[in-house]
Amino acid sequence: MKCIHCDTEMITANMDTGMTVGSYFYLWNKEKGIFNSRKTTTVKVYVCPDCGYIELRAEKPENLVINKKS
Questions:
Q1: CB of 46 closer than 8 Å to CB of 54
Q2: CA–CA gap between residue 2 and residue 34 (Å, rounded)
């Protein structure tokens, strides 16, 4: 993947909370209601080694879709 700012090839990196070992960022979505569970996906991090631009991408965005009943 190329950086949108300087056209350099981006590299993957890891990002965590710094609070506990093994922590990581993830995205979640949930339909309203206490009995509905969260739908989650991890986040992939890309960084440009030249300009420092960072891009975050959901690894499996389809996991976040809530299928509403009609």
A1: yes
A2: 42
